[in-house]
Amino acid sequence: MFPNSNKKLDKKDIDKNLKMMGISSAVLIGLFAYSLIKSDVPLEGTSYYLGVGFLFVLLFITLAIQKFKHKVREMIPKNKFQEELEKSNSNNISIKDEDTNSKNNTIEAVNSNITFKDVAGISEIKSELEEVVDFLNNPKKYKEFDIKLPKGVLLVGPPGVGKTLIARAVAGEANVPFFYQSGASFVHIYVGMGAKKVRELFTVAKSKAPSIIFIDEIDAVGKSRGTGGNDEREATLNELLTQMDGFDGTSGVMVIAATNKIEVLDEALLRAGRFDRRVFLTNPSKNDRLEILEHYLKNKSYTFDLDTLASDTSGFSSSALSTLINEALLNMIKSQNKTLSQYDIDIAKQKLQFGKKQTVVLSDEQKDILTTYQAGKAFIAQKSIKLFDEDIITQELVYPSKKELEKQIEIYLSGSITLEVIKNESYVVFKDDIEKAYQIANDMVDIYKMEDNQENIINNIKENLKSNIIKNRDTILELKDILIKEEGIVF
Q1: Same-domain pairing of 257 and 340
Q2: Closest CA to 414 of 449, 445, 383
């Protein structure tokens, strides 16, 4: 728009100058003629003829320029300011065009080249997701018996355990289009934009079915409604719920989402028919870490003992192990070596512990505290547990009895009481366990009216726990030894 208007301004300026030149020439000739008529003295000499010639030449030049003004314009060089202005204006137009094009761009899928072979240490997770892959690859086998798979799979776990990588592996294993979006990308300033993006995402995914939609950090848009007062986020969540209700289990579209804060998600997202299958991920056990390290060190030369390294990296997530090996390899190259040594691993550990990429690395004392805590918890719950599991999945009580509620409180308090008995000291390991125990006790008093005092419930359960743990101390210590060695207990 601006360059065209500038050209119009240039034409007007030149036309105006030409008119002024013509008028000036005509006025001078008129004055000269008037002087001839009124003057009594005849004009003669060289100056007279030069003056007359100059006026006619000026008039001729004016008429010639007026006739060929288009060619003259092309010959006149533009000044620097005008060139910069036109250049700036053209850039503004191109930027606006790019913005317009980006707004009109459709959501595109990617084809993942990652498969389960590229993801180590997830043997238990694979079995849960293999039927999802099989359904996407062989839908007829399921449709024949009118079988519908869950519409949504929710991956729950702390940061760095490989939730996104696993989702990509499912898409790569099934060889279907993979639509990646983060929860934050749906949150816009203007009301309605996030909901519109959700509609576009599901429309495109359905047209490319079979396909996978992966929503990372879904808690950014899926938080419980009525708590934040954000109309745009709630409108986007409502649209997501509507879209998930709008297709059935035979549509060929699988929605996978990831979060590390399942407790903040809206209940409507977690009900049957939406994200009704949940896969809980934790930091890898020793055997998982060994498998992950073998994967990252494949075709690489090293001198340290891999089993020892797997034992020494308790608390490392899969991404932390990847970073550890990468930092060690960088140090190896810096030292101009071709074989990875224990020294390189130690330098990498220091960077992870004290550098910008801080990772919790358990000392022997910290590992002893954690194994004691988890051993007591496993004994009381009589359920399988891994060293870094922060929660034992308790049965959802439909009609909770007083005894069942007290058992849940007992499980949540068991780790802390085990430490008090065996270590003769109080420790805080998983603070959520304490909060959940007190919340259940509070509900028993305020909501269920089963007891009159919260503290009495907690104190009575603590006393029963202490006597039970003292009586079974040796069994708990045996479980602790298994946890130290295997980092997991199976009942």
Answers
A1: no
A2: 383
CA atoms within 13 A on the CB side of 375: 27
pLDDT of residue 92: 47
Place of tokens 């009580």: 397
Give the span between the Cα atoms of 228 and 236, in whole angstroms.
Answer: 14
Strand, helix or coil for residue 283 = coil
Cβ–Cβ < 8 Å for 210, 111:
no
Residue 359 belongs to a domain:
no
Domain CATH for 310 = 1.10.8.60
Last residue of a domain, one of 280, 313, 333: 280
320 with 395, same domain? no
Residue 472 CB partners (closer than 8 Å, separation 6+): 379
pLDDT greater than 90 at residue 440: yes
Instruction: Count CB atoms within 10 A of the CB of residue 284.
Output: 30
Supply the DSSP string of 293-331, one letter for each residue: HHHHTTT--B-S-HHHHHHHTTT--HHHHHHHHHHHHHH
Q: Which domain holds residue 323?
A: 286-354
Can you give the pLDDT at residue 313? Answer: 86
Q: Is residue 465 part of a domain?
A: yes
Q: Which of 173, 194, 267 is nearest to 227 (CA)?
A: 267
The confidence score (pLDDT) of residue 384 equals: 86
Buried b (16+ CB within 10 A) or exposed e, 229-247: eeebbbbbbebbbebbeeb
The most confident of the ranges 87-101, 222-236, 314-328, 434-448 is 434-448
Decide which of 104, 122, 151 is a domain's last residue: 104
Residue 403 lies in a domain: yes
